[in-house]
# Entry
Amino acid sequence: MTRPPSLPPSRPSLSAAERKRASELLFKGVTCALIGAVILLAPHYARSLGVRDLMAQASVVGWFALVLGLAFIGRWGWQRRPGAPR
# Structure
């Protein structure tokens, strides 16, 4: 009798709470990254000089939001990789 080919170890299924936590982390990351991108790009597309100057002064906030969002997205991806501790 031949043995069936061994299957690769499957990842344990996530509980509902873990799935919710992961989806919230991804949502926060995408939201922060979008806010940062909008703040950084707004001076280039603003028609009013007042709005353009205001957004140019907020560039530090835009960079912070963009980096924070990318960090959240990176953490979400790091947790999703195979063999990641839960």
Observations:
- The mean pLDDT is 86.
